[in-house]
Amino acid sequence: MDAIFHGFLTLLNLFLIVGCCVVFTNAVEHLGKIYNLNEGAVGSILAAVGTALPETIVPLVAIIGAYFAHTDINVGKEIGIGAILGAPFLLSTLAMFVTGIAVVIFWKLGKRERKMNANYVVMFRDLKFFFFSYTLAIAAGFIPFKSVKYICAAALLAYYILYVFRTLNCSHSQCGEGAEVDELLFEKIFKKYNTFLVWLQVILSIAALICFAHMFVGQIRFFAELFNINPLVLSLILAPIATELPEKFNSVLWVSQKKDTLALGNITGAMVFQSCIPTAIGILMTPWVFGAESVINIILVYMSTILLFINLYRDKAFSAHILVTCGLFYLIYLVYILFDILG
């Protein structure tokens, strides 16, 4: 009976997360319009950071919560490291796969063309920043000196500030004009339109996203305990699936509206954020060393990223079938974890 009840709550959480994403994407587009931001900044910073908050909070809760709850601190740190590494892995594999599938489905339905029109400058910049920040974060895991690790953490924070500066200062001609926006949802409710109302919709939708994403994680924890899934699997695969849902749903919504720069920038911008901010926290608050499961995870992230780089360099654009192919790396990891559990 408990399993049925929690199954119902899981489905309810999914619907609520989708609803929050609709509200958030609507608000963030208006935010870009108000401040005259280029399309890359709207997708790669505003949308990416907003929807990255749930998965950023998960490792913090796991690590800090272990101290306050007086539970096994080592387990908390293990879950924290897994959640931090799991985020860019999910983004570069499963999130790309879902976006590619969405393009194919909407193309088959006649609602858009098959070719993706994401801005090349924005995509290449995001992937380049991600590759270097992720490499620095991973390199810190193999450095035995704490002082050098701390320098790496500080460098990652500075690197993200540089990324934000470069993104915001990119010209509209290079990074895209702001996309056309629909009527603000809160405008329909309050019968007026102003900057405060836009910010209110952004803040409330983010707060709701965080709340419902963590409720979803709670349901996953229930089923993980029910089926005796170990914490590392939970942190590397299950928890990030829940907390990455906003990025996936936002990208699907934008793909359906033919706003490919926003759809993909939402993912690639989140990849940059996840490789800088949460990893810096992980370096500072955990031993930041990697086991076999983490190393395999890292290798697959590099393989997926290199595949995206090759596609972008060759075609000057992402193609749906390449995004779908990224899902293969996620499947490989699932198979590896399954054999590891059975073994």
What labels would you give this structure?
single chain; about 350 residues; mainly alpha; A middle domain of Talin 1; 13 helices
Describe this structure in words.
The chain is globular, with a radius of gyration of 19 Å. About 45% of the residues are buried. With about 350 residues, the chain is mostly helical. The chain has 13 helices and no strands. It has a single domain, classed as A middle domain of Talin 1 (Up-down Bundle). Helices cover about 85% and strands about 0% of the residues.
What's the CATH C level?
A: Mainly Alpha
Number of strands: 0
Query: What number of structural domains do the residues give?
Result: 1
* Rounded mean pLDDT score: 85
What is the SS-derived class? mainly alpha
Number of helical elements: 13
How much helicity do the residues have? over 70%
Main beta sheet: none
C-alpha end-to-end distance: 31 Å
Runs in which pLDDT lies below 50 for 5 or more consecutive residues are none
Could you tell me the radius of gyration in angstroms?
19 Å
CATH topology category name: A middle domain of Talin 1
Global morphology: globular
Summarize the structure.
By secondary structure, this protein is mainly α. The protein is 83% helix and 0% strand.
SSE layout and pairing:
Layout: H1 2-34, H2 39-69, H3 73-108, H4 120-140, H5 146-168, H6 172-175, H7 185-190, H8 195-226, H9 231-243, H10 245-256, H11 260-285, H12 292-315, H13 320-342
